[in-house]
Amino acid sequence: MASTLGAVFLSRRQAPALTFLSQTRRTDQSSLFSFLPPVPPRSSRFPLGSWRWKLSAAPKDVFPVIKKRKLGRVACFMHEEEEASSISGSFEFMESKQIEDLGKAKLDQTSAKNKDWTSKIRKVADRIFTLHGDPWMVPWTADTIVQVMLLWIASFWLVGSWIIPFLAHAAGFSKESFTHRGQALYSLLTDIAEGLAGIAILHRCLARFHPLPSGWFRFSLKGNWHFDVGLGCLLFPLVNLLSQINISLVPILPAPPVGISSVEQSIVARDPVAMALYAVVVSVCAPIWEEIVFRGFLLPSLTRYMPLGWAIIVSAFVFALAHFNVQRLLPLVFLGVVMGVVFTRSRNLLASMLLHSLWNGFVFLDLMK
Q1: CB contact set of 165 (below 8 Å; sequence gap of 6+)
Q2: Which ranges constitute the DSSP H helices of the chain?
Q3: In Å, what is the CA distance from 313 to each residue of 294, 366, 367?
Q4: Are 242 and 330 in contact (CB under 8 A)?
Q5: Among 9-18, 63-72, 122-131, 203-212, which range has the highest average pLDDT?
Q6: How would residue 111 be classed by pLDDT, with cut points 50, 70 and 90?
Q7: Does residue 85 carry a pLDDT above 60?
Q8: Phi, psi (degrees; rounded to nearest 5) at 214
Q9: What are the distances in angstroms from CA 65 to CA 23, 71, 93?
């Protein structure tokens, strides 16, 4: 009945399939398993091997299908679990990898910035400490360098503290009895004597190396060294700031009262002649003597044993120590570096002398306020 109703309502193409299904339903289930032996009672004892042999004798087109379906379902399920675990693991791996990539990118950015800054600083340092022209040929050794510097310092102390006062006393003059102009003239003559003694010692120590190689003790009005001097003048406020920092770091040592100096007395008295003489001492004489020794001789001589940058720094440090003032050590070192850079860029002593003179004039004008 069901097959006839299905044949009425279904199409001709679906009718044969329905007929086949109805026929398979009517088939006896025992026909499907007719190959199996009858189930023995519990009391009977058949060997297990014979039962397995009879099962193995069954057709292969029945059980393998079932086994394949079951195994296929299990295999698909396991495959899904493996895919899920692999997907989750891959997501975790991708997330950790992304985090590592972000961290590496940040580190690369910071390292790139640091490299940029260091490269910029190196470029600036290379441009500043680059020696224009051929390097100096230094024919003398370290023994000559130490000899010249020690004799130069000793001559300044000996001439200024002993020889000039002794000659003045022998001539019947006393420094305390001088007027403001007399004291200013006395300071000018003392400074000139000290400078000439230092130049004489330098000439005597280097006499055996004459004629000197080219480039030594060069004075010239030509070139673009005026621009370097102008840039050095822009650093004067920084030198003044370092002076204040140095004074705050090094306390004033207790010293016996010496009263007001002759320079300060002339400034207080507002004597124009005395102030002009002191200005010549500070802004003309001192820069000439000191630049000839420290930038003209010491700095080029050190390039035989060290790079140019270190030669500038060492000569600046010696220049600061030669003033015998701990409270002015930092500004004098910095000022010596600036003057050394100006000198090495121009290879001209006039450049460092002018910058030195302008700084001393700046200090002298500050004292006059």
Answers
A1: 175
A2: 2-9, 15-26, 29-32, 48-56, 63-128, 142-158, 164-170, 180-205, 225-233, 236-249, 262-269, 272-280, 286-291, 299-302, 308-321, 329-346, 349-367
A3: 11, 27, 28
A4: yes
A5: 203-212
A6: low
A7: no
A8: -70, 145
A9: 21, 10, 40
Q: What are phi and psi of 131, to 5 degrees?
A: -85, 120
Tokens linked to 262: 């002759």
Cα separations in angstroms, 68 against 53, 59, 60, 73, 183:
21, 15, 12, 8, 123
Token pair for 323: 């003033």
Over residues 276-310, the pLDDT tens digits come to 999 999 999 999 999 999 999 999 999 999 999 99
CA 141 to chain CA mean position, Å: 34
What is the predicted pLDDT for the residue at 9?
A: 44
Say which residue the tokens 């002015």 belong to.
328
Q: The pTM is what?
A: 0.65
Length of the chain: 369
| b/e code 174-210 from CB counts within 10 Å (16+ = b) | eeeebebbebbbbbbebbbbbbebbbebbeebbeeee
User: Rounded to an integer, what distance in angstroms lies between the CA atom of residue 359 and that of residue 291?
Assistant: 13
Reading the block at residue 297, the tokens are 């001789």
| Cα–Cα dist 53/204, whole Å | 125
pLDDT tens for each residue of 160-193: 899 999 998 888 888 778 888 888 999 999 999 9
- Cα-flanking dihedrals φ and ψ of residue 58, to 5°? -70, 155
